[in-house]
Prior knowledge:
By secondary structure, the chain is mostly helical. About 80% of the residues lie in helices and about 0% in strands. The protein contains 15 helices and no strands. The chain has helices at about 1-15, 20-40, 45-75, 80-85, 90-110, 115-125, 125-140, 145-160, 165-170, 170-200, 205-225, 235-260, 265-270, 275-285, 295-310.
Amino acid sequence: MNAPTKLSRLQSLDSLPIDCLAALIGSIICFSFSPIFIRFSELEMGPNATTFNRFWIAAVVFGLLSSFLNVRHQKKETEPEGKNTHLRPETRVLIADGVLVSMGLIAWAWSLTQTSVANSSIMHHMAPIFTILGGWLAFGQLFDRRFILGIFVAIAGVTLLEVNDLLSLSLAQQLPGDFAALLSAVFFGVHSLITEQLRTKFKSVTIMTWSSTTSFLFILPVAVITEEQLFPSSVTGWFSVIALAFVGQMLGVGLWTYCLKKISSGFAGLVGLVVPVLSSFEGWAIFSEPVGFLTLASLLVVLLGMYLALSSRSAIKSGV
Length: 320
């Protein structure tokens, strides 16, 4: 029994699509830079204004890119009327996906004003748990024990990264912010499942165009009501939000959406747990923030969890 089991794990590891795996790694690196750009942006704007600018810039660029690809496609082959009728039944799902993303970011942005970055990061990156739970409840997805073990090992690694900050605040101080960050994890967990289903029918550019546009329209009234300043007022501010839109939204979320064609949303979410660790090292390089033993230990534990999940047959979709 041991030999076949070991063989199946090796086959799973070897059969991971290289392009999708490369896209996932690229998206994680881009995600890790998002807190850097957010920190620069929030020197002159609030969190909701920062998120608003992130989405409207991405929506414009994705809209132009989508239009260009559609025109190019129409030149190659005639495909009348059928395309729009195919889109209509899924329009509500595409809009719901954008609403979930914007609600998740609003909750996460508010949590950062109520609790430590450490606590917020831990709760927010619990999204893979809700992705797996939602996949099991809604779609009957099954994950083997090795994959589940990898999830909890990786989450333990992220928790280890922030253990000092967890002990520094009282429960009363951090509870509202922690709950908001956990709520954002629920939104992003469901968003992962929806995006995975949409990738069976649409290209990643189409999904990102709808998601960014819907998120921008949804968060606009929130930003207008809650923020005194809606747009950056300096070169540094504009650079921050433009970099956040291109690196965090277009490359980060775009590459992540692309890889969900063949890699399961549960595994993609698990790999995302390495983001806080990478952000810690980037904070050390850019802001001279200290990196201690726990950071290094956390990285090793997260990588162990990722390896366990990667060597599981649940990492990729059947039929790939």
